[in-house]
Amino acid sequence: MIRVAVDAMGGDRGPEEIVAGALDARSDDVSPVVVGPRGLDTGGLELLEAEDVVSMDDKPTDAVRSKPNSSMVVACRAVREGKADAVVSAGNTGAMLAASLLEIRRVSGVRRPAIAVTIPSKNGASVLLDAGANADARPEDLVQFAHMGAVFAEEILDVRDPQIRLLSIGEEAEKGNQLTLEAHELLSASELNFAGNTEGRDLLGGGADVVVTDGFTGNVALKLLEGTIRNLLDAFREEITATARGKLGGLLIRPAARRLRSRLDPDTYGGAYLLGLRGLAVIAHGNSSRRAIANAIRLAARGVDHDVVGRLAQRVGDTVLESSASTTPTPT
Amino acid sequence: MIRVAVDAMGGDRGPEEIVAGALDARSDDVSPVVVGPRGLDTGGLELLEAEDVVSMDDKPTDAVRSKPNSSMVVACRAVREGKADAVVSAGNTGAMLAASLLEIRRVSGVRRPAIAVTIPSKNGASVLLDAGANADARPEDLVQFAHMGAVFAEEILDVRDPQIRLLSIGEEAEKGNQLTLEAHELLSASELNFAGNTEGRDLLGGGADVVVTDGFTGNVALKLLEGTIRNLLDAFREEITATARGKLGGLLIRPAARRLRSRLDPDTYGGAYLLGLRGLAVIAHGNSSRRAIANAIRLAARGVDHDVVGRLAQRVGDTVLESSASTTPTPT
Question: Which of B223, B236, B264 sits opposite A201 (nearest CB)?
Fold first, then answer.
């Protein structure tokens, strides 16, 4: 039985929506543990009490330090203490990052955790990281992100020997900024299945299983992708409903539009992984629906089932040993 | 009469398409000058001879140095020599950047030129810069981009007192990477109409007249925007044509789809400005159609008519004086 701690007080839609999602995700293998205030109606799910709440407006680090009994921090602590195998929160992303760093802590050897987001694409899904855990990154961080993304692609997306690409401004190795030029060299020299740069235009087109970037670029790209999809679908609806002919056509294509929306719906994936921690943490959208929460819990459970944390620790450990071996002169 | 030098050998569609666009753009006020090999059929337009060609695969700086008689370099030189008031090329962007830096040169005080791209948005258009002239930028560069973008918005987009925003990963001042955090401070302290950060999700939604970013992020964002629009429209067509009902609906919404496409069509704007040079240069898409070329020529002519170069030089000059005045101790 996989136990997933769910922060009932995170998210814009209130605890009822979260509890409903948790109930939907309950199965023979998955047991959600609701974290929230005493007296909360959990529909029969186990309750882990936490009186305080981190709000969307709280400053991340302050909130986490000043609210050790908030549902978010208690949910993360449950993972460290073994009361849960994973944690899901739809709360303040920055605070969730701070809470999980404080309570779950980094895997030894991991320099910086990364937010890994699943991107729907033509040929199945790919994973983009870092989507915003750290705004600034060094070239070596990007190499670690690549290893972490490879574990995610293998275990969560079921891809064998995933292909890695570096998000840049041209496919040629010499196109990029200082960060990506250096990262390109390091990635080429690594044992990773590195296929070179990819450009923004190919993000939705597939072509890479893992797309590596710094958290600033990744966050701008992810929000741009979401915003463009929303703006474009809105603009299309506007044009269609502008004429009677269009309205009739709009009725006829409604099922097609629904299929497209579900292909692109972030709720399908439920949330983003925080990779590089000693426990499994999933960050769901603030506006998560019941369906999104249920999928986020399933996503977290899948990560536990596939031992993403253990495999990642193993892989990063090997890489650290390997790179220190190659830089340490061998005694002869 | 505004004379615009047009590189006939740049672009993927060949000189016939370019010449056709130039003929379309010819008017009582605009006189395109075709730059290409002797004997090229210009349909009666003036020909400036240039035997060599910069190809899309050429390395920018090498190509420009080794091909001083290429159509691209000759077209840029025509601006410096006063034979033309502006230049338009749909050729290799990197080479065009190198050629215009070499031949037209930077405005005194401008640290780095920037590529300014018009983005269609809900509330009219906005300008994004730098879209890729330089991969790395310093905070002070972003402030100059803001001034340059303000001139563009005033003169080309007809916006009074344009609002500037900084592309970042959250609206709050403390969200961003090292570059944007420092740029935010400088922008706030400037006399610009700076309205704070904007996120990727708002790029198509309007809200800022000028969006400032470094060339790496700007280029990733621009290509992501283009790719997402294309991928999404393709995916929609795919879903619609999957059923008979959808196909019928598709026929009915065809005019709406066409309106949407033209709202988003990059050909409407024709090209991107290279801002910060002593002459006016417009870079058109490699795949520019006749219509795109004609619009790029009109865009260039509008820039000449509104003296974008002069106003930009004046504004940057004032800013340079002002900032050196504020850092130089006043003798008392």
Answer: B223
